Write the structure tokens for this entry.
Amino acid sequence: MERDLKKRILLCLQIAALAACFTGCGRLSSSSAKETVAPPPAAPLPANSEATETAIRFLEDRVRRDPDDFIAFNKLAGYYMQRQRETGSVNYLMLAAKAAKASLAAMPAEQNVSGLGQLAFTEFASHEFTSARDHAMKLIELERKKAYPYEILGDALSELGEYDKAITAYAKMIEIGGRSVSGETRLARADLLRGNTDSAVERLTFALALASAQDPPPRETIAWIRWQLGEIAFSMGDYQKAEQHYRDALTTFAAYYRALAGLGRALAAKGDLPGAIESYERAVQIIPDPSFVAALGDLYKLAGRDQEAAAKYALVEQIAKLNAANGLLYNRQIALFYADHDTRLDEAYAQAKREYQDRRDIYGADALAWTAMKVGKIGEAQAAMKEALRLGTRDARLFYHAGLIAQAANDSQAAREFLKRALALSPQFDPLQATKAKQALAALGQ
């Protein structure tokens, strides 16, 4: 008990130091990034999965006996979403949406704002961003003095590519609710999209200290922040630091699928192919996310295990068929898989174009640009790539795509500049595509 108290006092001091730095100095400059307080050390945190499952079973029985118990439905949706974040399972997401809708069927939103909030959360997680935005705006009408509707609104607007409006929503969230884990992580994402990597790291570090000081500390949230720090380090080509962040996330949450996949990516970048394969295999066993499955297939291919690679690529195809039948969740990942592997290119282009009509974020523009280039629509690819780069995001994959699009447009100088930027930023950004980037740059003449 005394040791735990000392740890919390230390965390509070770290938080105070970070807060003083932010409020006294404004946003830290890139040059001061090295002076940022280090993240608190990683430690295992209890799962509480058994308690969550017990609560779920109790609430499922309760709503079975009383279908009008909208409060129980709301609690049930919240527990389902917690399990979805922990496991990545689409089944929990579908159950959460079903519970939220049942709640609103039992009691309308005007008397049941929690039900509307749960519905908006599930819509966002299901990539139904337009519906999430519209329901967030209705929540704001009903709960103007609450911060969480602005959080949902900002998230949906960001995914729809309305970045300035998203920042306005986040500012209102912080004005109402103060600085928080959710606020700092969202502003970190906004910084990252605009190329402000150091600021994003500082905000995530602050969020990590805040989360670690909670009683009890939220296991999945802390693992997610550590994973996100790993993603940033990887994107900057610091594979050693990325590996450490991913391992820290796994110390906190041993079966965290995002960190397992991230660790596999970092190990592959460092040349540890067997370790990368093992880590991705563990991630895929937990959740067959198509990007994980495709990455594992690529690693099998590099290892000369062609039959196993073909099996993983076939699994991505099966997931694509299920996705087409059931929703929007994996559209972009599947379109990029097709384009990266030069298969079903017309389908990839049609899918990316269809999604970009409604979801005009920079990564949707990138998917459209990449697939358009693959089907020979170079002018459209150039226009979409310009949109993808409009925020100044520092992402090797974006620069790689821009380089090959410029090469296809016979703009050798721009192609060389983009490819050099990609490889200087993160020379092993992808096991297969980074090699193609190097080959393209060599063909252009460095």
Summary: The radius of gyration is 22 Å.
